[in-house]
Structure formats: C-alpha cells, structure tokens
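In this section we walk through a basic example: taking a raw amino acid sequence and producing a predicted 3D structure, encoded as discrete structure tokens. The instruction is simple. Fold the sequence below.
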Amino acid sequence: MSEQVNIVLNGINTTAHKGEYILDVARRHGIDIPTLCHDPRLEPYSSCYVCVVEIEGQRNLQPSCSTRVAEGMKINTNNSRVHKARKTALDLIMSNHYADCAAPCRERCPAGVDVQGYISLIEKGLYSEAIGLIKQTNPLPAICGRVCVRPCEAACRRNNMDEGTGVGIDYLKRFAADRDLESNHHYKPTIAPSTGKKVAIIGAGPGGLSVAYFLQQKGHQCDIFEAQAHAGGWLRYGIPEYRLPNDLLDKEVSTITELGANIFYNQKLGENLSYKKISEEYNAMILTIGSQRGALLGADGEDADGVFSGIDFLRNMEVTGQRYDFKGKRIAVVGGGTTAMD
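The resulting token sequence is shown next.
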C-alpha cells in the first residue's frame, strides 16, 4: 500500500496518497475543480491556471493539477479569492483569444489550411462546407487527399497520447472531397462581377489551376495555355494512376473551369504560342511551368543509355500510354521516396 499523508481539504480532515496531485485528491472526494489544459493522459503543464487552489501558508494560489499533497497541508478549493483568480485566468485567456488559435497541424500545412475548422464541419456532416473552408487556401482537396505527404499528421498533438497515431487528417479531407464531388450541389465559390481584365496563365499544373481558381473568383478572365494534351501537369504526368486516377483529376479540374476559366491544350510558349500574342490580348501573364527536369546525381555516366530520372520515366509512360519492357533485366532504383516507389 502507498504511504498516506494527513491533509485538511475544505476544512475536513482526510488522507491522501503521498505524492498525489491535489486535483486528483479533490475529485476522489467528490469536489469539482475546473480545468482547461489538464488531461490525465499527459504530464501536467499548468498553463491555464483555471484550477488554482489556496494552500495555507503559501502566498500565491497554486495550480491543483501539478501541485502534490504533503503532510499537514491545508487546502481550500472554494472561496472568493479562488473564484476571483479563476475568473481572472479566464478573462486573460479570452482577452486575446477568439477560440481560433492555430494548432500545430495548421502551422505545418504548407497551404495553411484550417484543419480544425474543416474536421469540425466533417463531424457535423457538412461536407460541402468543409470543402469550402479548405478551398479558401487549397483548391485541389480531392487530389491532396490522395498524394499529400501529410506533414500535418506528423505534427498532430494526438501523437502524444497513448493511441499510437495522430488524426487521419488527409483521409478526412479525401472523404469530404469525394462526397462533395459526388453531390449534385457541390461547393462553388462566389464569383465577383467581371473586371474586364484578362490573364494568361502558362501551364495547367497545380500552380496554374490554383491561380485560375482564385483570380476567376475576383472577376478576372483566366485563360490557361497548356503544352500537353491534358491538364494536371506533374499531377498527371508524374504520379501514376494507381495513386491519383486521371478521372478524379479531371473532375477536380472541372471545378475550376466551371468558374469560367478556359484551358487551351497543345499550346507551348515560344513555339505555337507567342509572347507577342499574349502581350497584345491580355492584361497580365503568369508563368506556372513547374519543374520540367528530373534531378540526377551529378555522377559520371548518368547520361548513358538506360539511365532515367524518375519523373522522366513516369512521364514517358503517361504520355505514350506504353510501359517499358524490362523482362529478364535487372533494374536499380536510386532513392526511396514516393517517386522511387512509383
């Protein structure tokens, strides 16, 4: 049995386990002490100070979640001083807080998507509303729900629990995006009146599609010029269909063209598309051509026959529709990322 200590709790003599936190002792005796930051699965952090109590002989009130009992300690959890201190703690929190502080998942998201917000909407079954919130910063949620590397999940605070993993944020995004695309009333942003301005966007990859999505909402007419026969850029030509199906990619592209943006295919700047034409017909031009070359090692022999960069290998198969035949041959794949796995 653990060693017992004698304490006085709200004027009543009682015992507690040596080293026990005041909060736990109080709850065991049916005394309610409010908390905000406390979680029994985590080590006490004592950040909110909503759980303070008065201890005789100590000048300042102490957080009950992180203060351990000691022999002869006299504790008061319920008096005017305690109530005033707790109210002051709440007032200080709320004075500069609108219940919208950014969690680590949002901070780690490259697009700064409001992860907490859209998960809350998904929980309520408001899938299109969740997509509307995501699309404030990321116009391609169905695509990201399949190919994002999910830094948000690595930063999720639930990784600190005894659950073995964080929240499946990316799968939730994918679920909501798929439900929205399947809906007869999928999310469409409000389009401002036409400004009369025209913007030429070079490249229909994720950059060009995103530019068109946001500028079209502002009332600017966006025309995208794409060198390939289909939209998507490296989403289509660098990611195989088993991870990102082309029909899904086309559906998400259509949510941008339905806003009024046009995509002109097989148009390559400097070949069959001139800068002179663009400068004469458009008010602005935005280049979103992406990275067109795969990274090699900088080693001797990397330009030899049979040596490919990973993305060139994948692009050639998508463009030609033909797979390489390496039967009876040994292949070395240098690298261990997603491109190597593909």
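Looking at the output, two observations stand out. The first strand starts at residue 4 and ends at 9. The mean pLDDT is 92. In the next section we compare this with other chains.
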